[in-house]
Design a protein that fits this description.
The chain is an alpha/beta fold. It folds into 2 domains: about 15-205 and about 330-390, 3-Layer(aba) Sandwich (Rossmann fold); about 235-315, formyl-coa transferase, domain 3, CATH 3.30.1540. About 40% of the residues lie in helices and about 15% in strands. The chain has 18 helices and 11 strands. It has helices at about 25-35, 60-65, 75-90, 100-105, 110-115, 140-145, 150, 165-190, 200-205, 210-220, 255-260, 275-280, 280-295, 300-305, 320-325, 325-330, 370-375, 380-390, and strands spanning about 15, 35-40, 65-70, 90-95, 120-125, 195-200, 235-240, 245, 310-315, 335-340, 340-345. The strands form 3 sheets. The chain has a 6-stranded parallel sheet, with helices on both faces. The protein has a 3-stranded antiparallel sheet with strand order 7-8-9, with helices on one face. Strands 10-11 form a two-stranded antiparallel sheet. The protein is elongated and about 85 Å long.
């Protein structure tokens, strides 16, 4: 399939994607969706070069749309030579090897910089490029624990709980994409590229912004609060007649909420008269609100509370998420035609741009689908390409 840019926004940039798993592919996907030409470099001979199920599975299809695929053995000198030819004219390289691997392969930043001083080289690792843990294998769940997230997630006094989403991976990927954009923008004035890097551990701590700042500024070690807001009492998840509802009134809405619940006298109780007192007596107040909420259904409360401008919402399962009229209006589930699955829907870009929007221009490529095309572009003739295939270099 000929390459089609997914957007005009980043059309002029060429990205070499050496990543796998989730964090690195997320960064490269962000650039691909906005029109960069992303060449995903994969190991030859493995049709299911995927970390989560098969190549035609949901994860791989969702992570690698809008990219080209070049099968390339970087351990073979000829494979490395091909990579260096591509790197000489690339704008960005993204990798998430263990830190030592790129040096062993001879494709680290300094090596690339010698042939392309404009290169923006982005690295993602588990724990950082240097330091005592740099060589440890790092995965999302490990970072969630080490970065403090699991210590504040889950009901009070429960065992540690991980988030259902791969939040360290996704955050590291998005931060890397943002860092790449900053480096490309800076390059416009300096003319030089640079090496940027982050880790799952750093991303997780950064994501825990609220609790991390509370500790650094005030020495406050946050504890588990379940579905409740760490500081704003009366924000949380409450039972209704037929299910559950999230409500998030600000402190200024506290009296209004109690009036809606038919308990205006509670606001005058000294135990709940200020935000500080409400925190001291949180469990009693939450139980009181919970009992009042059981009088109506979730839908009834959502209607009532929204009319009164009190933030609220249901607790949706994934099927309910994509059936929601607002989600359907936003169009985040986007259809694409794939060779292996026919028409499927995948998760589109959440950032909407008025002139150069992201699109689903190309499905996830087959392994090495664009190898011959890419090799021809950098000067390999048909006989040379056939020889490379025969020797499993590509």
């Amino acid at each position: 399939m000929p390459f089609k840019h997914a957007s005009q926004a980043l059309r002029k940039f060429k990205i070499l994607d050496l990543t796998r798993a989730r964090a690195g592919p997320t960064a490269a996907r962000q650039l691909a969706d906005f029109g960069a030409r992303v060449i995903k470099i994969e190991e030859p001979g493995d049709p299911n070069y995927a970390d989560f199920g098969t190549r035609n599975g949901p994860d791989f299809q969702n992570l690698h749309r809008n990219k080209q695929s070049l099968a390339l053995n970087l351990k073979d000198p000829r494979g490395k030579e091909i990579f260096m030819k591509l790197a000489a004219t690339a704008d960005v390289i993204v990798e998430n090897y263990r830190p030592v691997v790129k040096f062993n392969l001879g494709i680290d930043y300094e090596s690339i910089r010698k042939i392309n001083p404009r290169i923006v080289y982005a690295s993602i690792s588990g724990f950082g490029q240097t330091g005592p843990y740099k060589d440890r294998p790092g995965l999302d769940q490990i970072a969630q624990g080490m970065g403090g997230h699991m210590s504040v997630t889950g009901p009070r006094n429960s065992p540690p709980v991980r988030s259902g989403a791969a939040i360290s991976d996704m955050t590291a990927g998005m931060l890397t994409a943002g860092g790449i954009m900053a480096a490309l923008l800076e390059r416009e004035s300096s003319g030089e590229g640079q090496w940027l890097h982050t880790s799952l551990l750093q991303a997780q701590i950064y994501l825990l912004d609220f609790q991390a700042a509370r500790y650094l500024v005030d020495g406050d070690v946050a504890q588990q609060e379940g579905n409740n807001h760490p500081t704003n009492v009366s924000t949380g998840t409450f039972p209704t007649k037929d299910g559950w509802v999230n409500i998030a009134p600000t402190n200024q809405m506290f009296d209004k909420l109690l009036a809606i619940l038919g308990a205006p006298e509670v606001a005058k109780d000294a135990k709940f008269a200020s935000s500080q007192e409400r925190r001291k007596n949180r469990i009693e107040l939450e139980n009181l609100i919970g009992e009042k909420m059981k009088a109506k259904t979730t839908a009834e409360w959502i209607d009532i509370l929204n009319r009164e401008r009190i933030p609220c919402g249901p607790i949706n399962t994934m099927d309910q998420v994509f059936a929601d009229p607002q989600v359907q209006h936003l169009g985040i589930a986007q259809e694409i035609e794939t060779p292996g699955r026919g028409k499927i829907k995948i998760v589109g870009q959440p950032v909407i741009m008025s002139r150069t929007p992201a699109t689903m221009a190309m499905p996830t490529p087959g392994l090495g689908e664009h190898s011959d095309e890419i090799l021809a572009e950098i000067g390999y003739d048909k006989a040379a390409i056939e020889a490379l295939h025969k020797d499993r270099v590509v």
